[in-house]
Design a protein that fits this description.
- The structure is a single chain.
- This protein has 72 residues and is mostly helical.
- The chain has a single domain, classed as Arc Repressor Mutant, subunit A.
- Helix content is 62%, strand content 6%.
- It is built from 4 helices and 2 strands.
- The chain has helices at 4-16, 18-27, 35-42, 46-59; strands at residues 66-67, 70-71.
- The protein has a two-stranded antiparallel sheet.
- Strand 1 (66-67) and strand 2 form a beta hairpin.
- The longest helix has 14 residues, at 46-59.
- The protein starts with a helix and ends with a strand.
Length: 72
């Protein structure tokens, strides 16, 4: 079974949500941003942004950089 279509569809699902798309656009310039700034860029609460970020991490679209007690 070809896993490429499955990978494409799961990635498309993650990008299709307008808030998640806005978060990815904010990250497109390569800067590491905290969840609060991504929430602001997407027009959602910090809790909602955190949920979206967890989906990105699980889907392999983002990684986390830790600096002290801060996560980007």
């Amino acid at each position: 079974m070809n896993t490429l279509p499955n990978h494409v569809s799961s990635t498309a699902f993650l990008i299709a949500d307008p808030a998640r798309a806005a978060m990815l656009i904010a990250l497109a310039d390569g800067r590491a941003l905290p969840a609060g700034e991504l929430a602001y860029a997407a027009g959602v609460t910090a809790q909602t942004a955190s949920s979206h970020l967890a989906k990105f991490l699980a889907g392999g679209l983002l990684t986390v950089e830790t600096e002290g007690r801060h996560r980007y």
